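Hi V.,

You were right to ask for the full record rather than a summary. Here it is.
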Amino acid sequence: MRGASVVLHGEGASSARELELRPAACFAGAVTSTGVYPPAIVGPVVCAGLRMEARAVRRGLAATPVVVVGYRARRADRLPAACAALVTMGFGGALDARLRPGDVLVADEIRGGGDPVRCHAVPLLAGELIRDGLSVQVGPLVTTDHVVGGAERAVWAEQGARVADMESGVVAECADGRPVAAVRVVVDGPGRPLLHPGTFARGLMARRVLARTGPALERWAAFLISGAP
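Predicted structure:
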């Protein structure tokens, strides 16, 4: 069985340390080089598709674990068995021109897995991101198994979707009734295709924005844990 890549922050763990743990044992008191892993995680867990997304997100996190679930969430078996919520974070492609590169979409609904999944405490999460000076919009997110481009963007936009990604729907299906949330920073969109020389600069900008999302997420998590509405 391949190891799960889990990042811990806070007391007893460096900000960039990755612990290689067995997926089945990650949340069952597994013994690691730094001690006994907690039997359950009290707060949310961030799910990032790519390591570059995970590195950007964790820059702003103090205590929230990050799990790399892989491209198209092919390693969804790394998801924890117990936590307060699953939050997918990373880059996405805009489906309408109202979202520009560097904008943040907080999903109110995740489509593309099975039935649409409603996201948890969306106004609170969006408000905390806005409080930190980010350009935030709210709307449906759709998960596909390929990069969306060209006329396909317009098709999804006509159905009300705002951003496309390739992981959130898979993660939401694995939530087993736990609250879910999704935060995506726009890299490409109508008139700004992914396969374009300008993508590199847009990607750097999106990565800087993604690195600023952590504090807002952890304030949102504090409300989630406290049971505030």
